[in-house]
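User: Just a sanity check before I run the rest of the batch. Below are the structure tokens for the first item. I only need the designed sequence back.
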């Protein structure tokens, strides 16, 4: 038996061993995470392609053109900082900066005051509340389109509605769109008329103010004005900061209404005596009417830097007047 088993050992050793097949291991969290990431990138690929081709690419090209002499017809020629030095020495460029700053400083606060005032009225429960909210928000649905600017220009032109109303009250001012000093006020009136978006945001903020604070203030004998300054404004200060930030940025970017109300293409493109010569309007004149795309690109990047600085100042100032709830930061 010992000899036979000894002879069988080499045979058994040489014979192939049949091992049971191993079951496939389930995909771990790393494998599933990679597949999920791949699916996410596939769904995001149209947006990524659009961002690279329509946003990042043109921005990089405009940054290069800002340092070149480029007129859309000839190849760009590198000139360094000449566009920026010419821009700073241009009196029309300085005039466009003044007009834009005036529009931002005047138009933005008036629009926000109108939005907050109407939001305070609509926050109270009354009959037909939904209708009034929709009616006040409707102008913002139209947006700053060309059609609205054309209608607005017709309203404020000579012998139109505003002019006839002034004559009715014995005010001989005339049409605003023909007056270099009054035409900018028509743009302010247009932006104030479209206060629906900040109004809705203010209304949402007012709904979050606890009613117990007003009840306690009533018990202490505080009037409505005192309640507004001591309760309402501090409680909605984050919403107020958000609206101030967005509306300030939008005011710097005004173009279509200023261009159309000012007169459109031609020698009077930005209003009589450059009355509506906002920054973007002069940028358009230099880039597309004078075919100086290099100078227009330099102006665009200067505007970007200015808006970034204003945004940084607003974020810095919020520490002094914006009050967040405990733990919200």
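Assistant: Here's the designed sequence for the first item:
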């Amino acid at each position: 038996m010992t000899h036979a088993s000894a002879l069988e050992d080499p045979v058994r050793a040489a014979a192939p061993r049949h091992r049971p097949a191993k079951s496939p291991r389930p995909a771990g969290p790393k494998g599933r995470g990679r597949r999920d990431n791949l699916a996410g990138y596939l769904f995001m690929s149209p947006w990524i392609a659009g961002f690279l081709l329509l946003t990042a690419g043109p921005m990089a090209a405009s940054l290069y053109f800002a340092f070149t002499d480029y007129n859309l017809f000839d190849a760009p020629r590198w000139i360094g900082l000449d566009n920026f030095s010419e821009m700073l020495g241009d009196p029309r460029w300085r005039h466009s900066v003044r007009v834009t700053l005036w529009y931002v400083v005047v138009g933005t606060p008036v629009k926000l005051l109108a939005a907050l005032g109407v939001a305070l009225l609509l926050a109270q429960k009354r009959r037909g509340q939904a209708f009034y909210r929709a009616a006040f928000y409707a102008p913002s649905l139209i947006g700053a389109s060309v059609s609205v600017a054309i209608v607005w220009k017709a309203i404020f032109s000579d012998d139109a509605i505003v002019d006839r109303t002034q004559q009715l009250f014995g005010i001989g001012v005339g049409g605003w769109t023909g007056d270099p000093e009054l035409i900018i006020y028509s743009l302010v009136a247009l932006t104030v008329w479209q206060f629906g978006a900040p109004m809705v945001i203010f209304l949402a903020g007012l709904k979050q103010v606890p009613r117990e604070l007003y009840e306690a203030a009533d018990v202490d004998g505080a009037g409505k004005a005192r309640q507004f300054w001591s309760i309402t404004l501090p409680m909605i200060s984050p919403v107020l900061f958000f609206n101030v930030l967005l509306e300030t940025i939008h005011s710097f970017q005004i173009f279509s209404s200023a261009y159309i109300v000012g007169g459109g293409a031609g020698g009077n493109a930005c209003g009589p005596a450059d009355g509506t010569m906002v920054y973007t309007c002069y940028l358009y004149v230099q880039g597309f009417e004078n075919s100086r795309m290099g100078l227009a690109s330099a102006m665009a990047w200067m505007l970007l830097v200015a808006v970034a600085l204003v945004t940084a100042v607003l974020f810095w100032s919020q520490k002094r007047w914006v009050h967040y709830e405990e733990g919200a930061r």
